[in-house]
Specification:
This protein is mainly alpha-helical. It has ten helices and two strands, in the order ααααββαααααα. The protein has a two-stranded antiparallel ribbon. Helix 2 runs antiparallel to helix 5, helix 2 crosses helix 7 and helix 8 crosses helix 9.
Amino acid sequence: MINREFVDDKKLKDIFTYISGMRHCEKIRMMFLCSLNGMRAINFCCLQIKDVYTPDFKVNDVIYLGEDKNKGKNKCSYYLNSQIKKEFAEYLKYLQSINNEITPETYLFVSQKLNKPYNRVSISALFSSIYKKFNIKGASHLGRHLFVSKLVNSGINICLVQKLANHKNISTTQRYFNYDPKMLSNAVENVKI
């Protein structure tokens, strides 16, 4: 699927402002951040403490997931920048405030009704309803498209982007890319005749 949507930083900020007024905003915000960090819903819907944090509750630099938490029965890894690491550290404080007994097996995102991890269909419906409020066609996977587009638009080599998105084929990464209209103007400005 080719990404036809481009969501700028201002619109993302508006989305996060909207989320802050929602019930369970902490969970929804963190799931959105996971998506915008390139994760698939199948990756973050069943994240556990042991996946994100060290035994002494420091945030890992990389989230390594086994084939049970990824598409296609493959392992994957997601690198975390300082901003997302800070967000995960804050999210742990939130989890500790609502759950007296945090163990390595504790899930980061559980539904209130079943007290089980969210399923990716529910996550997709939730994301879709939020994006719809902003006239954006998209669901949980849109965050991956935005992640790839931001990396490419900032000049990151497409081969590195492929690895960061955990794509087997570079052609998949290319389909995710959507240009920033400003990027086209800047590109021609750099051409000297």
